[in-house]
Amino acid sequence: MKSLNEDIEKGQFKNIYLLYGEEDYLKRQYKQKLTKAMLPEEDTVNYAYYEGRGIPVPEIIDLAETMPFFAERRLIVIENSGLFKAAAPELADYIKTMSPAACFLFIEKEVDKRGKLYKAVKEKKGRIVEFGAQKEQAVSPWLLGKIKKEGKKIKQDTFRHILLKAGMDMETLDKEMEKLFCYTIGKDEITMEDVDAVCTMQITNHIFQMVDAAAAQDKKKALDYYYELLALREEPLGILSMLTRQFRLLLNVQELMKLGKGKKEIMADADDKPMHPFVAEKCMRQCRNFRRSELLAILEEGIQIEADIKTGQLNKVMGVELFLVSTAARGGKER
């Protein structure tokens, strides 16, 4: 991001930009910043935008070869094309000798670094920036800045509650904060009640809550969280998969803790890495409520129930209910 900011500040741009990764919010922000910096807002003649798969590559090349109209450059923005996961040999070959008056701005979710197009962009010395999932130390200052800009106050516990409910995805957080700001118009402080009233619990946090309930042997609460996910039209098999994944992670974290490893080491060494500090804390706390033998039994049961559902021997909604009830019966036992 530092290199992008320097390009924008200096007004010195590369012929090709590739912004990719999971964090849609940052990709969108830098797409807008780069576009605004490269072309005046009123210049629609030298701007072209393509989105989705099946983009006509010959048309893009012809456009790139067309000299800009009374401007320094022609900007072509290509988003979610999948070209960096396909071969795209024609575009890769063109990039090697592309017009210096053209600029490509690619925004993608995933790329194949072994692919011909990615290598062509790299060889051309294009600016390649990955926007991966952001860590709490990056998200928290950004979120607190938004709250301060709105002139709101917030207590630390309430702030943590927002992260618990909405997760670390900046796109999701941005939307949830807009809802909160509208809901708290005329109020100086955002309270815990405000967050519970308008913020939507994300599925990963529901999974944490379900495991918490099972660890406390609270079958009713675990099932309540499950029914909430069903009401949000989440698939039972998908929920079961996420639950078994969480228990597999608990087993992994428990083994690392037995080796005397602390939070930072667990974040670095866990199977699901890089692990977020919040996730590491949750797992370290949750795994204390299950013996190793119980976690192994839970994982075996999850595999069996999934097989029974897929072979039609068990109703999928009931299958997950049985898994949660059985899991809650195994909780509350110090390792």
Written overview of the protein:
This protein has 335 residues and is α/β, with parallel strands linked by helices. 58% of the residues lie in helices and 9% in strands. The chain is built from 16 helices and 7 strands. The chain has helices at residues 2-10, 24-38, 57-65, 89-96, 116-123, 136-149, 156-166, 170-183, 192-198, 203-215, 219-231, 236-258, 263-269, 277-286, 292-310, 316-330; strands spanning 16-20, 47-51, 74-79, 102-108, 127-130, 153-154, 189-190. It has a 5-stranded parallel sheet. A two-stranded parallel ribbon has the order 6-7. The longest helix is centred in the C-terminal third of the chain and has 23 residues, at 236-258. The model has no long low-confidence stretch (mean pLDDT 88).
Distance between the termini: 44 Å
Instruction: Give the oligomeric state.
Output: single chain
The number of helical segments is 16
What strand order characterises the main sheet? 2-3-4-1-5
Q: How much is the radius of gyration in Å?
A: 24 Å
Strand content: 5-15%
State the total count of DSSP E strands: 7
The backbone outline, from C-alpha atoms, is globular
| Sheet/helix structural class | alpha/beta
What is the string of helix and strand elements? HEHEHEHEHEHEHHEHHHHHHHH
Q: Name the average pLDDT.
A: 88
What low-confidence regions span 5 or more consecutive residues with pLDDT below 50? none
Q: What about the largest sheet?
A: 5 strands, parallel
What is the percent of helical residues?
A: 55-70%
